[in-house]
Structure formats: structure tokens, C-alpha cells
Write a structure and sequence with these properties.
α12 crosses α15 and α14 packs antiparallel against α15. About 80% of the residues lie in helices and about 0% in strands. It has one domain. The model has no long low-confidence stretch (mean pLDDT about 85). By secondary structure, the chain is mainly alpha-helical. It is globular, with a radius of gyration of 21 Å. It contains 15 helices and no strands.
Length: about 325
């Protein structure tokens, strides 16, 4: 892990701690503690958007692996991304674990395209949230900043897509291989070009791509259910439009703050400000943010342990059978 990444993670932790410290921490923590069964219900409900995301991902395989296997891999990757201070490590692990249950070459390409679809559909989801924000708040001064942030997210997603079409991985391998002889041994140009080709092939399958995008968008919308449940448990029932607004714009803030692992402090601050705009109060927004972090911990820690066990078994198997062929 790079020093800059660790510093960014510490800054995120510090920002979250500062938000709690200046907003009556005793009241905020009491509100989270009062959730009890509502928090448990939100944890269980998270299986719905997770399942929808996996259905979208499954559409990108020519011979789709079993749903339960993909859900387990997606769960592990989500836990790694949410809790470890290493950006996108979960996606690398997702591709590595999927390689053993899918056809040759499809794992990495499916993850790349799935991430791209995630950004594209998130832009649409954020636009929907902005529309609801404008209707619900009557043109708050914050609206201009939200539009700008969504525009930046759109440009980033479009750039990522265009780079893929131009041969992103071959270019990256060429740059990395110039650093050292170790990099030249680890990064093969033929493999990088093959990955670029498989990604382009996936983009040519328009029907499957469109289906995956619809399911991915449904996953974003379903995530608003967690907001609705938690706020109901906090004694602030809201409508679907408010829930979608809070979920879409806070998730967009998290994605825009990609340099800070897990969007620590950024997503939480966004929920605080947005809840204030709805008249729910800063303490309610912060309690909601902490409840979402609790859900990430409850689901993420077992995911990390499961990923560690799987990787440890692989290392042990390689040590015991160094000449064994890799799994199909």
C-alpha cells in the first residue's frame, strides 16, 4: 500500500471523527443504538441490491457461473473495497476468484465492463437524485455543486470507457514494464492485449450489455431501500423520492472521492448535509451515515475473513503441490 493511500485513509477517518465530534456525539450514538432490529433488517435487506448487481454481472458471461458462487465473490470484493485502505483491491480479487469458475479470459473482462456499467448507471442514478433534489428543496444553492460533481463523474466514466476502447491494458502494461525487470516478468504484453480484445468483444454484445445495465440500475435504486428502512427506524419516515435522493447523491459523493478509501468522511458528510436540506437535522443525517457504516462492518469483516481463508488455502496448495496445473 502506498503512503499516499494510507494518508488519504487517515484523513477520511479523521474527517468522520470530526463530524461526530461536532454534532452532539452522545445523541448521535444513542440514535444509532435505538435502531436495534431496524439495523438488523437493513443488514439483511442489503442482499437485495447485492443480488441485483450479481444478476447484472452474470449477464456478461458467455457461460454464466452459478449465482451463489458469484454472490459470494461479490460479497468478498465489496467487503475488501469497503474496509481495506487499498483502492480497487476488491475488483482485482473479484477477477482472480472468478477466474476459477468461468471460461478462460472472461473473468477480468467481465469485471472491467461491470465496473464501467456501474459508473454509467450511477451517473443516471445521480441525475435522478438531482431531479428529486431540485423538486424537494426548491432550487437550493447546493444544486449547482451537485450538477458539477455529477458532470465530473460523467467525464471520468466516459474517459475510462474510451481508454478501454483504445487498448487501456496494453498501454498500462507497456508503461509498467519500463520500470524494472521484475515488472517485465510479471506483466505480459500478449496477456494485456488479449484482455483488451475480450473487453471489446463484450462491448459488442449489445443485448447482454443493455440487460446488464438495466439490472445494474435496478441495484442502485434498490439500495435506497436501506435509507428508507434506517430513517424509519430513526423515527423519520420518508418517501421513495427522498430515499433515492439521499442514496444517489451520497453514493455519487463516495465515488467522486475515489482517492479516499471507502469515501470515509465524504459519504457521511454528504448524508449530513442532504438530511439538513430535507429538514431532518444534522444529527439524523450523521446517525444514518454511521448506521450504514455499521452495516458495512457487519458484512465486511466476515467477507475479509472468507477472502483470507480462500487465499491462504491457495498458497498452502501451491506450496504442497508446486508442479500442479492451475485449476480450470
Amino acid at each position: 500500500m502506498r503512503l499516499s493511500t494510507f494518508i488519504a485513509w487517515l484523513l477520511g477517518v479523521g474527517l468522520l471523527a470530526a463530524l461526530v465530534a461536532v454534532n452532539d456525539p452522545a445523541q448521535v450514538l444513542r440514535a444509532v443504538a435505538r435502531l436495534r432490529y431496524w439495523l438488523l433488517l437493513a443488514i439483511v435487506f442489503h442482499a437485495v441490491p447485492l443480488w441485483l448487481d450479481v444478476v447484472a454481472w452474470q449477464r456478461l458471461f458467455s457461460a454464466p457461473p452459478r449465482m451463489l458462487a458469484l454472490m459470494r465473490i461479490r460479497w468478498i470484493a465489496e467487503g475488501v473495497n469497503g474496509l481495506l485502505p487499498v483502492p480497487h483491491l476488491g475488483e482485482l480479487l473479484r477477477a482472480d476468484l472468478t477466474r476459477r469458475i468461468s471460461r478462460a479470459g472472461e473473468a477480468g473482462a467481465s469485471v472491467v465492463v461491470d465496473v464501467t456499467l456501474g459508473v454509467a448507471t450511477q451517473v443516471l442514478f445521480a441525475a435522478l437524485g438531482i431531479a428529486f433534489f431540485a423538486l424537494l428543496t426548491g432550487g437550493s444553492p447546493l444544486l449547482r455543486g451537485l450538477v458539477l460533481a455529477t458532470a465530473i463523474l460523467s467525464v471520468g466514466g466516459a474517459t475510462f470507457y474510451l481508454l478501454q476502447r483504445a487498448g487501456l491494458f496494453a498501454l498500462a502494461a507497456h508503461v509498467v514494464r519500463r520500470w524494472s525487470s521484475e515488472a517485465r516478468r510479471r506483466f505480459d504484453m500478449d496477456d494485456a492485449r488479449a484482455l483488451d480484445g475480450r473487453v471489446r468483444t463484450l462491448y459488442a454484445r449489445r443485448a447482454e450489455l443493455f440487460s446488464a445495465a438495466l439490472w445494474r440500475f435496478a441495484g442502485w435504486v434498490a439500495g435506497a431501500g436501506e435509507i428508507w428502512l434506517l430513517l424509519y427506524g430513526l423515527g423519520h419516515p420518508i418517501g421513495l423520492a427522498q430515499a433515492i435522493m439521499l442514496e444517489s447523491l451520497s453514493q455519487a459523493a463516495r465515488t467522486a472521492a475515489f482517492a479516499i478509501p471507502g469515501g470515509l468522511g465524504i459519504q457521511d458528510g454528504a448524508l449530513l448535509v442532504l438530511c439538513q436540506q430535507l429538514g431532518l437535522g444534522a444529527e439524523t443525517g450523521l446517525a444514518l451515515a454511521l448506521a450504514k457504516r455499521c452495516r458495512e462492518l457487519v458484512l465486511g469483516v466476515p467477507a475479509l475473513l472468507a477472502g483470507y481463508v480462500i487465499q491462504a488455502r491457495r498458497v498452502a496448495a501451491r506450496a504442497a503441490w508446486p508442479d500442479a496445473p492451475p485449476p480450470a
